[in-house]
Write a structure and sequence with these properties.
Nucleoid_associated_NdpA; 2 domains; two-stranded antiparallel sheet; nine-stranded antiparallel β-sheet; Nucleoid-associated protein YejK; cytoplasm
Amino acid sequence: MPILHSIVHRIDKETGETPATLAPATVELPPSPALDDLLEGINKAYHAKPKAWGHFLADGDEGDAGSGSSAFPASLVAYLEDERDFVAFSRELGEHITALVAAHLSLSGHLLVAHTRQGDTQYLILALLHHREGFGIGDDLAVAPARQLNLSQMSLAARLNLSQWRGDSPSKQYLSWTRDRGGRKLAEGFAELLGATEGVDATGETRTLLKAFSDYVESEDMPEERSREKTEALIDYASDQASRGEPMTLEELSEVLDEQQPKAFFDHIRNADYGLSPEIPPDRKTLHQFRRFTGRAGGVSISFDSHLLGSSIEYDEAADRLIIKQVPKQLREQLKRQGG
Protein backbone atom coordinates (compact mmCIF):
# COMPACT_ATOMS: atom_id res chain seq x y z
CA MET A 1 0.00 0.00 0.00
CA PRO A 2 2.03 3.01 -1.20
CA ILE A 3 1.78 6.01 1.13
CA LEU A 4 1.40 9.20 -0.91
CA HIS A 5 1.36 11.59 2.08
CA SER A 6 1.37 11.08 5.85
CA ILE A 7 1.85 13.11 9.00
CA VAL A 8 1.48 12.82 12.77
CA HIS A 9 0.28 15.63 15.07
CA ARG A 10 0.32 15.41 18.88
CA ILE A 11 -2.74 16.25 20.95
CA ASP A 12 -2.01 16.90 24.65
CA LYS A 13 -4.77 16.56 27.23
CA GLU A 14 -3.90 16.85 30.89
CA THR A 15 -6.16 15.69 33.68
CA GLY A 16 -8.61 18.08 35.26
CA GLU A 17 -9.97 21.14 33.51
CA THR A 18 -6.88 21.84 31.41
CA PRO A 19 -7.94 22.23 27.76
CA ALA A 20 -6.52 20.00 25.06
CA THR A 21 -3.80 21.54 22.92
CA LEU A 22 -2.44 20.67 19.49
CA ALA A 23 1.29 20.33 18.85
CA PRO A 24 1.30 20.25 15.04
CA ALA A 25 4.02 18.77 12.88
CA THR A 26 5.47 21.08 10.25
CA VAL A 27 6.62 18.43 7.77
CA GLU A 28 5.32 15.14 6.44
CA LEU A 29 6.64 11.79 7.58
CA PRO A 30 9.42 10.35 5.41
CA PRO A 31 8.78 6.91 3.86
CA SER A 32 10.04 4.00 5.95
CA PRO A 33 9.39 0.28 6.48
CA ALA A 34 8.29 1.08 10.05
CA LEU A 35 5.64 3.48 8.78
CA ASP A 36 4.40 0.88 6.30
CA ASP A 37 4.12 -1.70 9.08
CA LEU A 38 2.37 0.76 11.38
CA LEU A 39 -0.22 1.63 8.77
CA GLU A 40 -0.86 -2.06 8.09
CA GLY A 41 -1.40 -2.61 11.82
CA ILE A 42 -3.76 0.36 12.02
CA ASN A 43 -5.82 -0.97 9.12
CA LYS A 44 -6.15 -4.41 10.71
CA ALA A 45 -7.14 -2.96 14.08
CA TYR A 46 -9.59 -0.55 12.45
CA HIS A 47 -11.37 -3.21 10.41
CA ALA A 48 -12.01 -5.18 13.61
CA LYS A 49 -13.68 -2.27 15.43
CA PRO A 50 -17.42 -1.43 15.50
CA LYS A 51 -18.04 1.35 13.01
CA ALA A 52 -20.62 3.22 11.01
CA TRP A 53 -20.74 3.32 7.20
CA GLY A 54 -22.07 6.18 5.17
CA HIS A 55 -21.24 9.25 3.13
CA PHE A 56 -20.83 13.01 3.33
CA LEU A 57 -24.05 14.85 3.96
CA ALA A 58 -24.39 17.06 0.89
CA ASP A 59 -26.56 20.18 0.82
CA GLY A 60 -30.20 19.21 0.53
CA ASP A 61 -29.73 15.64 1.82
CA GLU A 62 -31.63 14.45 4.82
CA GLY A 63 -29.62 13.57 7.88
CA ASP A 64 -28.65 14.56 11.37
CA ALA A 65 -28.97 18.24 12.12
CA GLY A 66 -25.72 20.10 11.95
CA SER A 67 -23.80 17.49 9.96
CA GLY A 68 -24.04 19.47 6.76
CA SER A 69 -22.15 22.41 8.29
CA SER A 70 -18.85 20.51 8.54
CA ALA A 71 -15.86 22.17 6.89
CA PHE A 72 -14.04 18.86 6.42
CA PRO A 73 -15.34 17.84 2.95
CA ALA A 74 -14.59 21.28 1.47
CA SER A 75 -11.14 21.31 3.07
CA LEU A 76 -10.46 17.85 1.65
CA VAL A 77 -11.54 18.96 -1.83
CA ALA A 78 -9.17 21.93 -1.61
CA TYR A 79 -6.30 19.57 -0.78
CA LEU A 80 -7.14 17.09 -3.55
CA GLU A 81 -7.36 19.90 -6.10
CA ASP A 82 -3.94 21.27 -5.02
CA GLU A 83 -5.40 24.45 -3.57
CA ARG A 84 -3.67 23.74 -0.24
CA ASP A 85 -0.89 21.40 0.80
CA PHE A 86 -1.23 18.24 2.85
CA VAL A 87 0.40 19.69 5.96
CA ALA A 88 -2.05 22.61 6.14
CA PHE A 89 -5.02 20.34 5.45
CA SER A 90 -4.02 17.88 8.17
CA ARG A 91 -3.32 20.67 10.67
CA GLU A 92 -6.83 22.09 10.24
CA LEU A 93 -8.22 18.60 10.75
CA GLY A 94 -6.05 18.26 13.85
CA GLU A 95 -7.50 21.46 15.30
CA HIS A 96 -11.03 20.10 14.94
CA ILE A 97 -10.04 16.73 16.43
CA THR A 98 -8.40 18.55 19.35
CA ALA A 99 -11.66 20.32 20.14
CA LEU A 100 -13.45 16.96 20.10
CA VAL A 101 -10.85 15.45 22.43
CA ALA A 102 -11.22 18.40 24.79
CA ALA A 103 -14.97 17.84 24.99
CA HIS A 104 -15.12 14.06 25.29
CA LEU A 105 -11.75 12.47 26.16
CA SER A 106 -9.25 12.64 28.99
CA LEU A 107 -6.39 11.04 27.03
CA SER A 108 -3.54 12.50 25.03
CA GLY A 109 -2.77 10.97 21.69
CA HIS A 110 -1.15 11.24 18.29
CA LEU A 111 -3.27 11.93 15.24
CA LEU A 112 -2.03 10.11 12.15
CA VAL A 113 -3.38 11.25 8.78
CA ALA A 114 -2.40 9.29 5.68
CA HIS A 115 -3.25 9.46 1.99
CA THR A 116 -2.60 6.03 0.51
CA ARG A 117 -3.11 4.08 -2.69
CA GLN A 118 -3.98 0.40 -3.08
CA GLY A 119 -4.06 -0.66 -6.71
CA ASP A 120 -6.14 1.95 -8.54
CA THR A 121 -7.98 3.01 -5.37
CA GLN A 122 -6.94 5.89 -3.13
CA TYR A 123 -7.86 6.22 0.55
CA LEU A 124 -7.64 8.81 3.28
CA ILE A 125 -7.05 7.30 6.71
CA LEU A 126 -7.03 9.12 10.03
CA ALA A 127 -6.59 7.62 13.48
CA LEU A 128 -6.11 9.01 16.99
CA LEU A 129 -3.53 6.72 18.60
CA HIS A 130 -2.85 6.28 22.31
CA HIS A 131 0.07 4.74 24.18
CA ARG A 132 0.43 2.04 26.79
CA GLU A 133 3.29 1.35 29.13
CA GLY A 134 5.32 -1.77 28.41
CA PHE A 135 8.78 -3.21 28.74
CA GLY A 136 11.69 -3.84 26.42
CA ILE A 137 15.14 -5.38 26.47
CA GLY A 138 18.01 -3.02 25.71
CA ASP A 139 21.28 -3.76 23.90
CA ASP A 140 22.83 -4.31 27.33
CA LEU A 141 20.21 -7.05 27.94
CA ALA A 142 18.64 -5.02 30.74
CA VAL A 143 14.89 -4.65 31.16
CA ALA A 144 13.69 -1.10 30.59
CA PRO A 145 10.28 0.56 30.47
CA ALA A 146 9.05 1.27 26.94
CA ARG A 147 6.02 3.13 25.62
CA GLN A 148 4.13 1.44 22.83
CA LEU A 149 1.27 2.47 20.59
CA ASN A 150 -1.93 0.72 21.63
CA LEU A 151 -3.66 0.19 18.29
CA SER A 152 -6.64 -1.56 19.86
CA GLN A 153 -7.50 1.64 21.76
CA MET A 154 -8.10 3.92 18.77
CA SER A 155 -10.64 6.41 20.14
CA LEU A 156 -11.30 8.01 16.77
CA ALA A 157 -10.57 6.66 13.33
CA ALA A 158 -12.04 6.97 9.85
CA ARG A 159 -11.39 5.59 6.38
CA LEU A 160 -12.53 7.29 3.19
CA ASN A 161 -12.48 5.69 -0.24
CA LEU A 162 -11.45 8.75 -2.21
CA SER A 163 -11.85 7.03 -5.56
CA GLN A 164 -15.48 6.10 -4.89
CA TRP A 165 -16.29 9.51 -3.48
CA ARG A 166 -14.70 11.44 -6.37
CA GLY A 167 -15.58 8.93 -9.08
CA ASP A 168 -18.76 7.84 -10.79
CA SER A 169 -19.66 5.13 -8.28
CA PRO A 170 -23.22 5.42 -6.92
CA SER A 171 -22.09 3.98 -3.58
CA LYS A 172 -23.28 5.74 -0.44
CA GLN A 173 -20.87 3.77 1.75
CA TYR A 174 -17.50 5.18 0.80
CA LEU A 175 -16.85 6.53 4.30
CA SER A 176 -16.59 4.61 7.57
CA TRP A 177 -15.78 5.79 11.07
CA THR A 178 -15.47 4.31 14.57
CA ARG A 179 -18.59 4.09 16.67
CA ASP A 180 -17.65 2.91 20.14
CA ARG A 181 -20.79 1.80 21.93
CA GLY A 182 -19.39 3.20 25.17
CA GLY A 183 -19.00 6.72 23.79
CA ARG A 184 -22.16 7.71 21.95
CA LYS A 185 -21.57 11.46 22.31
CA LEU A 186 -18.02 11.08 21.05
CA ALA A 187 -19.18 9.08 18.02
CA GLU A 188 -21.92 11.61 17.24
CA GLY A 189 -19.45 14.49 17.55
CA PHE A 190 -16.98 12.69 15.29
CA ALA A 191 -19.64 12.10 12.61
CA GLU A 192 -20.61 15.77 12.77
CA LEU A 193 -16.96 16.82 12.48
CA LEU A 194 -16.60 14.68 9.35
CA GLY A 195 -19.91 15.90 7.94
CA ALA A 196 -20.99 12.27 7.68
CA THR A 197 -24.33 10.52 7.79
CA GLU A 198 -24.96 6.78 7.88
CA GLY A 199 -25.97 5.27 4.56
CA VAL A 200 -26.77 1.79 5.83
CA ASP A 201 -27.25 -0.13 9.08
CA ALA A 202 -24.46 -2.70 8.84
CA THR A 203 -25.83 -4.92 11.62
CA GLY A 204 -29.40 -4.89 10.35
CA GLU A 205 -28.40 -5.36 6.71
CA THR A 206 -26.07 -8.26 7.54
CA ARG A 207 -28.82 -9.92 9.58
CA THR A 208 -31.31 -9.50 6.72
CA LEU A 209 -28.79 -10.89 4.23
CA LEU A 210 -28.31 -14.00 6.35
CA LYS A 211 -32.10 -14.41 6.60
CA ALA A 212 -32.33 -14.13 2.81
CA PHE A 213 -29.62 -16.77 2.48
CA SER A 214 -31.45 -19.14 4.84
CA ASP A 215 -34.66 -18.67 2.84
CA TYR A 216 -32.75 -19.32 -0.38
CA VAL A 217 -31.24 -22.56 0.92
CA GLU A 218 -34.67 -23.72 2.09
CA SER A 219 -36.41 -22.81 -1.18
CA GLU A 220 -33.82 -24.75 -3.19
CA ASP A 221 -34.26 -27.81 -0.93
CA MET A 222 -30.49 -28.33 -0.90
CA PRO A 223 -28.84 -31.46 0.50
CA GLU A 224 -27.14 -30.92 3.84
CA GLU A 225 -23.60 -31.10 2.44
CA ARG A 226 -24.31 -28.58 -0.32
CA SER A 227 -26.04 -26.25 2.11
CA ARG A 228 -23.03 -26.38 4.43
CA GLU A 229 -20.65 -25.65 1.55
CA LYS A 230 -22.63 -22.57 0.54
CA THR A 231 -22.79 -21.36 4.14
CA GLU A 232 -19.01 -21.65 4.42
CA ALA A 233 -18.59 -19.82 1.10
CA LEU A 234 -20.80 -16.99 2.35
CA ILE A 235 -18.95 -16.65 5.65
CA ASP A 236 -15.53 -16.84 3.96
CA TYR A 237 -16.47 -14.12 1.46
CA ALA A 238 -18.00 -11.86 4.11
CA SER A 239 -15.06 -12.33 6.49
CA ASP A 240 -12.57 -11.58 3.73
CA GLN A 241 -14.41 -8.36 2.84
CA ALA A 242 -14.51 -7.38 6.52
CA SER A 243 -10.78 -7.96 6.93
CA ARG A 244 -10.11 -5.64 3.97
CA GLY A 245 -12.58 -3.00 5.14
CA GLU A 246 -14.72 -3.42 2.04
CA PRO A 247 -18.50 -3.97 1.72
CA MET A 248 -20.08 -7.10 0.33
CA THR A 249 -21.78 -6.68 -3.02
CA LEU A 250 -24.87 -8.79 -3.69
CA GLU A 251 -23.93 -9.61 -7.28
CA GLU A 252 -20.41 -10.68 -6.35
CA LEU A 253 -21.68 -12.76 -3.44
CA SER A 254 -24.18 -14.48 -5.74
CA GLU A 255 -21.34 -15.45 -8.07
CA VAL A 256 -19.30 -16.79 -5.15
CA LEU A 257 -22.19 -18.98 -4.00
CA ASP A 258 -22.83 -20.62 -7.37
CA GLU A 259 -20.44 -20.32 -10.31
CA GLN A 260 -22.81 -22.37 -12.50
CA GLN A 261 -25.78 -20.10 -11.74
CA PRO A 262 -24.10 -16.83 -10.72
CA LYS A 263 -27.38 -14.86 -10.69
CA ALA A 264 -29.46 -17.37 -8.70
CA PHE A 265 -29.05 -15.89 -5.21
CA PHE A 266 -29.15 -12.33 -6.53
CA ASP A 267 -32.45 -13.03 -8.31
CA HIS A 268 -33.85 -14.64 -5.16
CA ILE A 269 -33.11 -11.48 -3.17
CA ARG A 270 -34.61 -9.17 -5.77
CA ASN A 271 -37.73 -11.30 -6.36
CA ALA A 272 -38.44 -11.59 -2.63
CA ASP A 273 -37.86 -7.85 -2.09
CA TYR A 274 -35.82 -7.97 1.12
CA GLY A 275 -35.00 -4.27 0.74
CA LEU A 276 -31.26 -4.89 0.86
CA SER A 277 -28.72 -2.34 -0.36
CA PRO A 278 -26.55 -3.37 -3.35
CA GLU A 279 -23.52 -3.07 -1.05
CA ILE A 280 -23.58 -4.26 2.56
CA PRO A 281 -20.81 -3.60 5.09
CA PRO A 282 -20.28 -6.95 6.86
CA ASP A 283 -20.92 -6.88 10.59
CA ARG A 284 -18.42 -9.23 12.23
CA LYS A 285 -20.45 -9.94 15.36
CA THR A 286 -23.52 -10.95 13.35
CA LEU A 287 -21.40 -13.13 11.07
CA HIS A 288 -19.78 -14.91 14.01
CA GLN A 289 -23.22 -15.83 15.32
CA PHE A 290 -24.21 -17.40 12.00
CA ARG A 291 -23.42 -21.06 11.52
CA ARG A 292 -25.41 -24.21 10.93
CA PHE A 293 -26.18 -26.83 13.56
CA THR A 294 -26.26 -30.28 12.00
CA GLY A 295 -26.79 -33.83 13.26
CA ARG A 296 -27.70 -37.25 11.96
CA ALA A 297 -28.68 -40.37 13.93
CA GLY A 298 -31.16 -43.21 13.68
CA GLY A 299 -32.54 -42.18 10.31
CA VAL A 300 -33.09 -38.57 11.42
CA SER A 301 -31.10 -35.73 9.82
CA ILE A 302 -31.45 -32.19 11.21
CA SER A 303 -29.76 -29.02 9.98
CA PHE A 304 -30.65 -25.40 10.77
CA ASP A 305 -29.04 -21.98 11.03
CA SER A 306 -27.90 -20.99 14.50
CA HIS A 307 -29.77 -17.70 14.49
CA LEU A 308 -33.08 -19.66 14.50
CA LEU A 309 -32.28 -21.13 17.92
CA GLY A 310 -34.38 -19.39 20.52
CA SER A 311 -36.94 -18.11 18.01
CA SER A 312 -38.48 -20.64 15.63
CA ILE A 313 -36.46 -23.49 17.15
CA GLU A 314 -36.01 -24.24 20.87
CA TYR A 315 -33.87 -26.78 22.67
CA ASP A 316 -35.10 -28.25 25.97
CA GLU A 317 -31.86 -29.45 27.51
CA ALA A 318 -33.51 -31.13 30.51
CA ALA A 319 -35.72 -33.32 28.29
CA ASP A 320 -33.17 -33.47 25.46
CA ARG A 321 -35.90 -32.33 23.09
CA LEU A 322 -35.79 -30.05 20.03
CA ILE A 323 -38.95 -28.05 19.39
CA ILE A 324 -39.58 -26.75 15.85
CA LYS A 325 -42.19 -23.98 15.87
CA GLN A 326 -42.22 -23.30 12.15
CA VAL A 327 -42.14 -26.49 10.10
CA PRO A 328 -40.75 -25.96 6.56
CA LYS A 329 -43.55 -25.84 3.99
CA GLN A 330 -42.33 -28.79 1.93
CA LEU A 331 -41.96 -30.97 5.02
CA ARG A 332 -45.37 -29.89 6.32
CA GLU A 333 -47.04 -30.90 3.04
CA GLN A 334 -45.35 -34.31 3.16
CA LEU A 335 -46.52 -34.86 6.72
CA LYS A 336 -50.08 -33.89 5.78
CA ARG A 337 -50.12 -36.34 2.87
CA GLN A 338 -48.77 -39.09 5.10
CA GLY A 339 -51.36 -38.33 7.74
CA GLY A 340 -54.16 -38.37 5.17
